[in-house]
Write a structure and sequence with these properties.
Chain lengths: 208, 252
């Protein structure tokens, strides 16, 4: 069973549908006990970093997620959910993340050439940087769907894929059992479904 | 490199796709769900569902099919038509839409874009503008292109982007239905005025029209069309293969 963390941020309908479509057993929950029982945990997120981080803390789910990560549970953050895995974000101020992956999240504005539009929105090709179990059914150069205005940096050691957008942007990261993708696998057609499928096949014992 | 998007637009009335279509192998060509799946498998990068229903019963049918589509099609879905309030945004987003396009609703209520962007983020709000030249000036038209609002189009678009519209669909009434190519002059004017993604609509008749569009105006992000895809005049697979051959960044 794969659990989607429900902490009141964004719309989980598409993500749930995509997991149903690949035949995964899905539960959407904020219950720490259910999360502990899940085989894998997905941390979604859209909107602003500060608001999402506050909601995670208010529900106590930040501590639960840190425990799960430490226990070896496969954890995948998507979009803002990936950004929350890092130590800090500089989206409107300075905010603390979960600190599960070394690095920080910074604005694209000023970091990419001025003639590139922000948000980075649309289909872009993945450039593999490192082997990752989530990529077992896709290939270098496959396109996935991005929508974001901030990106993760100072995290080179954990970057598994990048995308070119006036510069190289962090597209996917991994740190043992903790994974993140900046793009939306649930909106990335068959490539995205293949990534989710690979995630739902991960077992704790394979990763540590 | 970000790829140029190809977007088929489906007009939906009372839960069915209008405009006759004829695809070999498709049992029910007026089912939005069937067609959405078909287009997604052909390589469409995004889908637009345009609700042309007027009744509340029809609205319910529309959201029902939206839910069904979201369950089976995993590419971005944009919904337009009948979006007048933030409650309308909420209604379609809950049913699986990723973006919502506003047209007349934004003209009637200038605060709509600002309010929706604040709630759902700029990336969620698409401005759709129907534009026509009147005495050499680009004017915004309302009510499906029937009513001249008198507003100058570029200024209108700039204002909507300032209020939070994250993308702009430019529908040229002058080239729409003519199948002689996109309105390059109008699109160039819009691209020069705003820094958000611009989607070209109106005028595509053949594959070359898309190639010309992306070569002439590298700032245009996407091409949208309806009937040429529905009637099979242009197959999305062929179109994308030709785009790639012409060195246009394309998702194959």
């Amino acid at each position: 069973m794969v659990a989607i963390v429900d902490y009141g941020v964004g719309n989980l309908f598409s993500l749930e549908c995509s997991l149903n479509a690949i035949g995964a057993e899905v539960v959407v929950t904020a219950d720490p006990h259910v999360l502990k029982q899940a085989d894998q945990v997905l941390l979604p997120g859209v909107g602003a970093f500060e608001d999402a981080a506050k909601k995670l803390r208010a529900t106590g789910l930040d501590a639960v997620l840190k425990d799960l990560a430490a226990s070896g549970k496969p954890l995948l953050g998507i979009c803002l959910g990936m950004q929350m895995l890092f130590e800090k974000s500089y989206e409107y101020g300075e905010h603390e993340g979960l600190g599960l992956i070394p690095g920080k999240v910074v604005p694209m504005e000023g970091a990419i050439p001025a003639d590139y539009k922000i948000p980075h929105i649309g289909w872009n090709a993945l450039r593999f940087k490192k082997a990752c179990p989530l990529f077992k059914n896709i290939k270098d150069g496959d396109c996935v769907y991005f929508v974001h205005s901030y990106f993760a940096t100072d995290c080179e050691a954990n970057v598994t894929a990048t995308a070119e957008y006036g510069r190289s942007l962090t597209a996917a990261v991994a740190n043992k059992n903790v994974f993140g993708c900046q793009f939306h696998p649930e909106k990335s057609g068959s490539v995205g479904l293949a990534i989710l499928k690979a995630f739902t096949e991960l077992k704790e014992e394979d990763l540590c | 490199m970000i790829t140029k998007r190809i977007i088929p637009c489906l007009d939906v009335k009372n839960g069915r796709v209008v405009k006759g279509m004829n695809f070999e192998g498709l049992q029910d060509v007026s089912s939005p769900v069937t067609l959405a799946k078909f287009y997604s498998e052909c390589g469409a990068d995004e889908l637009v569902f345009y609700d042309i229903t007027a009744s509340s019963d029809g609205r319910k049918l529309f959201t029902d099919i939206l839910v069904e589509t979201a369950k089976t099609v995993f590419i971005p879905l944009t919904v337009g038509g009948g979006i007048n309030t933030v409650a309308d945004f909420d209604r379609v987003l809950k049913c699986g839409a990723d973006k919502v396009s506003v047209n007349s609703g934004a003209i009637r209520n200038p605060d709509l874009i600002y309010e929706a962007a604040k709630l759902y983020g700029n990336q969620c709000v698409v401005l759709s503008a129907d534009i026509k030249r009147v005495d050499g000036v680009f004017r915004v038209f309302a009510k499906g292109g029937r009513e001249n609002t008198g507003m100058e189009a570029i200024e209108w678009i700039r204002r909507c982007v300032g209020n939070g519209a994250g993308e702009v669909v430019v529908n040229s009434i002058d080239t729409d239905g003519v199948k002689g190519g996109f309105d390059l002059e109008m699109l160039d004017a819009v691209c020069s005025a705003v820094s958000v993604p611009v989607i070209a609509s109106g005028g595509a008749g053949k594959i070359d029209d898309f190639i010309t569009l992306f070569h002439a105006l590298p700032k245009v992000d996407a091409g949208l069309a309806a009937s040429i895809f529905h009637f099979g005049e242009v197959a999305i697979k062929d179109l994308k293969a030709e785009m790639a051959k012409a060195n246009i960044p394309t998702r194959l």
